[in-house]
Design a protein that fits this description.
single chain; 444 residues; alpha+beta
Length: 444
């Protein structure tokens, strides 16, 4: 055990003689002296480290600006005396200059692939030169971090010697390529055209659904004639008669517009019809809010509000012209927040009696929004809606990016305490862009 000797002369001499005779380990000097020595040594190490980084930074800066000015300097030198270079004419490649000891001639080696440069970095291990090469070749550094450089090198294939190619193998490869080419589907064609080519054609007298030219409706129809291409033998058109319509509306349609009347497609037809009817209704939202995503789904079917009519926001537009600008803005924000709640999809919001957004809670929330007198009380309503959406036990009502945006906002207590008209507006429009209002259905 090491101990420090007392500062008193008489006691120190007696203690030293005793320890010397008994062969006990000891350290001479005072504790303060040893502390000073340790601090000085640590400061010297820090100063040496700072100077080392400073010198390296100056060297890097000199080399980088030298290349820009046309004066090429080596990246560095390894322990074996090989110099490493990068030239402006080929910035993606690294060159290594090595002297041949037998002839005294410099031999140059070029490494152009990122995985090859990564292998050189691995060989240099913890040398300062390796750090500099990583800085100059970020693609190689990325391969090192992902540990992919070795796999790429191992998967390299040597080119076959064409003089010794087996004829049977060559024929088998050609036959396999032809079969693969024959089975390959033309990916440039739309998905609808590929479905038309692979499915069975409809026959005369069969009931079908025909997509309108605007692609917004499906019409019930019956096939009265089939047109077949003489060269290819494929169906290139159907003549259809629309149910309950006059025969003068019969027409020829392309095969991609005709689908089978399956249960799913009939359901989609009803939804498309409802959306078409509701879209013709006049939007009750203020013109300033027509850019919101909620407005587009205000009259869409299957909303969380159920059979309740969309919340009227017309009262917020009747603000006296001589009112303060903040009052006008606050009224617009109230309307925007109510539009967001009115347009929520039933699929993503728990409106059951035990849910976070049960009818009583949502009704009380709407009253609170209408009675808000300032940014703080409106911010309370905003965070209440956010909380209900994030706590819902159903499918997530927010997109992945939207959920990230919501959770990056200030905490609820902080947002309410520091609420302003601007912060409330930003929070409402972020919420509007983050919500999934509709999971679009597509025909099959």
């Amino acid at each position: 055990m090491f101990e420090f000797i007392a500062k008193n002369n008489t006691g120190a001499q007696a203690d030293l003689r005793f320890r010397h005779s008994s062969q006990l380990p000891f350290v001479t000097g005072s504790l303060s002296a040893h502390d000073c020595c340790a601090a000085s040594a640590h400061a010297a190490r820090l100063e040496r480290l700072r100077q080392k980084h400073k010198d390296r930074f100056e060297d890097n800066a000199e080399r980088d600006y030298g290349r820009r000015c046309g004066r090429t300097l080596p990246i560095g030198k390894d322990n074996l005396g090989r110099t490493y270079w990068i030239f402006a004419a080929d910035p993606s490649s690294m060159f290594i200059c090595e002297m041949d000891t037998s002839t005294g001639i410099n031999m140059w080696h070029r490494f152009s692939e990122p995985e090859a440069i990564a292998s050189v970095i691995v060989c240099l291990d913890k040398d300062d030169l390796a750090s500099e090469i990583k800085r100059l070749f970020p693609a190689s550094n990325a391969l090192l971090r992902k540990r992919k450089w070795a796999d790429i090198l191992q998967k390299r294939k040597l080119k076959p010697n064409l003089d010794f190619v087996d004829v049977d193998d060559e024929r088998a490869s050609a036959k396999k390529a032809e079969e693969k080419k024959a089975e390959k589907i033309d990916m440039d064609k739309p998905a609808d055209e590929m479905d038309v080519e692979t499915r069975e054609p409809f026959v005369e007298g069969e009931r079908v659904l025909v997509e309108s030219k605007s692609v917004k409706l499906l019409w019930d129809a019956t096939i009265t004639a089939v047109s077949v291409d003489q060269e290819s033998g494929k169906v290139d058109g159907y003549r259809v008669h629309y149910t309950d319509w006059s025969s003068r509306f019969d027409e020829w349609v392309q095969p991609m517009r005709v689908v089978e009347p399956s249960e799913y497609n009939l359901e989609v037809m009803e939804e498309m019809y409802e959306e078409s009817v509701l879209s013709k209704k006049v939007c009750s939202a203020p013109s300033k809010l027509h850019c919101m995503a909620a407005v587009k789904h205000l009259h869409a079917p299957k909303r969380a509000r159920g059979s309740r009519a969309p919340t009227s926001v017309e009262e917020f537009s009747n603000i006296p012209a001589d009112a303060y600008s903040d009052k006008h803005t606050l009224s617009t924000l109230k309307a925007a927040l109510l539009l967001v709640e009115t347009s929520l999809a039933a699929k993503f919001v728990d409106t059951s009696n035990k849910g976070y957004w049960k009818p009583d809670a949502s009704a009380g929330w709407r009253i609170k929004v209408k009675c808000s007198k300032g940014p703080s009380s409106l911010m309370e309503c905003i965070v209440m809606l956010e909380d209900a959406l994030t706590r819902s036990s159903k499918s997530s009502s927010l997109t992945v990016a939207g959920c990230h945006l919501i959770f990056c906002q200030p905490k609820h207590w902080k947002a309410i305490a520091d609420a302003t008209v601007a912060s409330a507006a930003m929070r409402i429009f972020l919420l509007d862009s983050a919500i999934k209002y509709l999971s679009s259905s597509k025909r099959k």
